[in-house]
Amino acid sequence: xxxxxxxxxxxxxxxxxxxxxxxxxxxxxxxxxxxxxxxxxxxxxxxxxxxxxxxxxxxxxxxxxxxxxxxxxxxxxxxxxxxxxxxxxxxxxxxxxxxxxxxxxxxxxxxxxxxxxxxxxxxxxxxxxxxxxxxxxxxxxxxxxxxxxxxxxxxxxxxxxxxxxxxxxxxxxxxxxxxxxxxxxxxxxxxxxxxxxxxxxxxxxxxxxxxxxxxxxxxxxxxxxxxxxxxxxxxxxxxxxxxxxxxxxxxxxxxxxxxxxxxxxxxxxxxxxxxxxxxxxxxxxxxxx
Amino acid sequence: xxxxxxxxxxxxxxxxxxxxxxxxxxxxxxxxxxxxxxxxxxxxxxxxxxxxxxxxxxxxxxxxxxxxxxxxxxxxxxxxxxxxxxxxxxxxxxxxxxxxxxxxxxxxxxxxxxxxxxxxxxxxxxxxxxxxxxxxxxxxxxxxxxxxxxxxxxxxxxxxxxxxxxxxxxxxxxxxxxxxxxxxxxxxxxxxxxxxxxxxxxxxxxxxxxxxxxxxxxxxxxxxxxxxxxxxxxxxxxxxxxxxxxxxxxxxxxxxxxxxxxxxxxxxxxxxxxxxxxxxxxxxxxxxxx
Lengths: 289, 290
Prior knowledge:
The structure holds two protein chains of two kinds. By secondary structure, chain A is α/β, with parallel strands linked by helices. Chain A has ten helices and twelve strands. Chain B folds into two domains: 38 residues; 241 residues, Orthogonal Bundle (MetI-like fold). In chain B, strand 1 and strand 2 form a beta hairpin.
């Protein structure tokens, strides 16, 4: 008799626990879905594919946005490819993709030829980088210009060790190079002897292994493997890029051929809208709102 | 059955072979025509003089690709000058100079090297060779003509060795009895009989090796530093035409910079063809003369 009572008590307890857990789960699901649905409502009931290509800095944001959308609506397929800013503009212009990303503004000639519409969605800074063990902590803009022009060739002239400076730059189609050259080097010369690397990643791996190297990467690529010396005493990070004290910044653009419609418009609205802020910040950029 | 059908119906086989040959030839020809077609704007003399100059500064309006042409030729010839003797040495080692055990091991290693993708050599060299050159010579960043020469020599080595090896394999049985009758040691047989009779093998090794060295993109792109300049020493950074194409392909497709890619492509094509023809003529003269 006693034992029976105990077991019944236990049973009802167990049922209660399971019941409350189920309730919690349901509640959680409701909360989650309402939270998610905010910006993704626009995709409800839609079908189709979006092809994206271009700037390599954009890829983390594009991938995370695509995953969120495709999780909410499995009928939508979004493909994200790289290639660089030039390729992005070319591909969208020729109608090969729906959205072409670029880390620079499309030139007037490109806009006129292809009828491009630009959608800036984030701000990215470009930082001067040196080897993590290089003792140089701060450079002036004039020093950086002299170094890249080949007028300063030894680290001891800027407070470093007595060693030749190894220059690393990017090819002319790079959006990162374009903004660095325009905003920091003031369109000054870059020494012909500078090594040319083909991507932000290659730049980081080259400079992180060269004790006497100097180059530049997108702030989104900064980490402990390289050091970003202060520019005119200003630390280089997302904060200073956002409040404007660090001047070497650019916008990241999505470009479409003509005004986007349907699914592509929904995607552009989602990335430029309030629901993508977290994704953009987590990728190391500053959202444009 | 299969042998019988081959003998009884040689015509279909001959047709298949002829068709494949014509298709291959047509592909090569159409690539050439395609390149030539896209190079039409080059016929303008101002454009041509701009491209055939030494300075590559697109933002200042200089689109010279001569330093890339020089870079390609310098790199390909230097790496072949290194790989050819080494390859010949390895081949002699495999064919009688070395003991049979290590010889088999060496040959096996060389065959294995053919299956290693270029990018792997490039990747390893970036992490090992470049820092080593930088630390040992204390001259520049390590990304240099020298780094690319060493990397490319490793890449073309199997081509040289295996071409020579297959030639030695066909010559050896022909001279075996003679060598045995004269009481020659394996090294004497190699030096006096096999090598003098292997002219065609040397020619093929040189043509294929140079073609591979000239056409490779990944090694120069990853190791040579890509500065569009004439090198003053082997420690200077250079850019080859292949690396130039890979780097610049993303620029505005209507610009002169983009046009320079087609000029590079055409130059690469013609250089390879000229080297091929030149070496064949050289070999032809030698055979006629002897």
